[in-house]
Amino acid sequence: MTAAPSSSPDGTTRLEAEIQIRLGRLDLDVTLDVAGGGVVALLGPNGAGKTTVLRALAGLIPLDRGHITLSGQVLDDPARNVFVPPEQRPVGVVFQDHLLFPHLSARDNVAFGLRRRGVRRAAARRGADQWLERFGVGDQAPQRPRTLSGGQAQRVALARALVTGPRLLLLDEPLAALDVGTRAEVRRDLRRHLTTFDGIRLLVTHDPVDAYALSDHVVILEQGRIQQSGALAEVTGRPRTRYVADLVGLNLFRGQLLEGVLHLAGGGRLVTASRLSGEGFAAVPPQAVAIHRVHPEG
Is 42 helix (H, G, I), strand (E, B) or coil? Predict the structure, then answer.
């Protein structure tokens, strides 16, 4: 069954998703509620379920349970027997390896989505040329993907994702395939182009620099569950998992606080400046650690 398109009551773009999928050893259970206007970065270790979330939103993996609603349009709801196929979703995707069609020119790669929606060939190619110019690769329009640099291919892939006017843009490690020299330049370009898109932008990355440069909000996903979310500075300033602590180079200790003393599971103790009690975390930067052979004085 295919759901009929509709819009949210207030006319804004909003993603509401409850994604439950069991895939091999992965048991994914993630709830998202994202409004348009910002960039949300999904971070987490390998196998956490980040790419599976994007594939479910794109319609490449059906839900086992839950629902996906975009601006009032139900895209997936197994309980109601609703599933909108990928090609009918108002979703654009930029894959890690770009996945440009090797036998098509850059122009025809970008025009492909418009042609699939019934746009005549000449009009689709004109639209593609406009988007390629917008991304600074108009002169590469007749070239095949194998002749493009990594940065040029990334821009073509982004133009292809946006040419159909999606309400949701999914970016799966869009800078991972680039070399270090190209990455910083393309990151700046990507940030500039993302600000011109007023829909929802969801970015998967392993790199905290990409998350810091491109996103306004981060979601930490581990073992198929959301562990933390918020502004990057807020999340990294108060890590709640070993992954987040390692991400920013902090030592994370977890235990029970009793009158300001954190009692660790291994038997150690950390004395804090607070007088709080209950379950707690202590994030200790390496430069704050000193080792003495005798009890320090002063």
Answer: strand
